[in-house]
Design goal:
Elements lengths: L2 H7 L1 E4 L6 E4 L9 H14 L1 E4 L7 H9 L19 E5 H4 L17 E8 L7 E5 H6 L3 H7 L3 E5 L4 H4 L5 H13 E8 L1 E3 L6 E3 L5 E4 L4 H15 L5 E4 L6 E5 L3 E5 L9 E7 L13 E7 L5
Parallel strand pairs: 2-3
Antiparallel strand pairs: 1-2, 3-13, 4-15, 5-13, 5-15, 6-12, 6-14, 7-8, 7-11, 8-16, 9-10
Helix pairs in contact: 1-2
Length: 301
């Protein structure tokens, strides 16, 4: 479907030059015609993250049913789904507060293709979410740097520094994340640059699940990752969304990083996420992601 065809079906209003669009006049449900769903997917591939206000008619069942029209659902591998649901992750600021850039579940070899997030309880002030376009981040790298990073691979893990992950969160949230990562240790090698399976565009694959670059010592790895991270989150690549209750955000998890801004003090923030299954990342040379480790933790990690 061409972009002109998409705009005949959807009222699409871009939010920045590179990233994000708001779609008006669409009532999300599992009963949408196939042509509308195709248009939504095409808008998502172009804008990387799309937003729908006024979707308070959605409950957990309707949220999942709509997401399932976009592809098979992928429950979180380490956390239980919200009671009574198949694959809904409840993100309540009282126990899951975090504020770092990441791509969802990249410690898995086949990480989610899409995420569908619904605003349930939103602070009066604060609690925005940022998304960065990692396609454009790669596209605007200097040619010599592209040639270098095209060859790099990184280890992604669900064991991370929970204190860094929750810089402004409560001690309860820190303990929650620390305990979660001890239940099952999963490590996967992904290419730092992967080829998007639908668009063929190259995108950076980064975020807080990255532990280190393959073949580099920890100091050099950290420096190189910092350079790439700075390019990825350049202001030109970012869109910021101010949540309202009932909003829905859908993003292409293969072409974005995102970060929830932790600036709302003791206010409660509840959002619920459903993810759609994806595939292995494919490097420029055709190699695909490899699982290094998937085992019950001994607690030593």
């Amino acid at each position: 479907m061409t972009l002109s065809a998409v705009t005949q079906i959807l009222d699409v209003r871009p939010l920045t030059v590179r990233t994000g669009a708001e779609i008006h006049g669409t009532h999300l449900s599992a009963d949408l015609p196939e042509s509308t769903l195709v248009a939504i997917r095409q808008a998502l591939l172009k804008y990387k993250v799309i937003f729908f206000r006024g979707q308070s008619h959605l409950d957990e069942a309707a949220h999942e049913a709509f997401a399932a029209r976009l592809g098979p659902l992928q429950p979180h591998p380490a956390r239980a789904s919200l009671e009574g649901t198949r694959a809904t992750l409840n993100l309540d600021s009282r126990d899951t507060r975090s504020s770092t850039w990441h791509t969802d579940l990249t410690f898995l070899n086949a990480f989610p293709a899409l995420s569908v997030l619904r605003g349930v309880e939103i602070p009066e002030l604060g609690g925005d979410t940022l998304w960065s376009n990692t396609d454009s981040a790669y596209a605007y790298l200097p040619a010599a740097l592209k040639a270098f990073v095209d060859q790099l691979w990184a280890v992604h893990s669900n064991v991370y520094d929970s204190d860094a992950l929750v810089p402004a969160g409560s001690s309860t949230a820190v303990a929650f994340h620390a305990e979660l990562s001890k239940k099952r240790v999963i490590e996967t090698e992904h290419p730092v640059v992967h080829v998007h399976p639908e668009t063929g565009e190259r995108a950076l694959l980064l975020g807080h699940f990255v532990k280190r670059l393959v073949g580099f010592n920890s100091a050099d790895s950290a420096r190189l990752l910092a350079i790439l991270h700075d390019h990825a989150i350049a202001h030109e690549n970012i869109v910021r969304w101010r949540w309202q209750q009932g909003d829905v955000a859908i993003w292409d998890n293969r072409a974005t990083l995102h970060k929830a801004v932790d600036d709302y003090n003791d206010a409660q923030r509840v959002v619920r996420r459903v993810t759609v299954s994806g595939t292995f990342a494919t490097a420029v040379d055709g190699r695909t992601s490899v699982t290094r480790l998937s085992a019950e933790s001994t607690g030593a990690a």
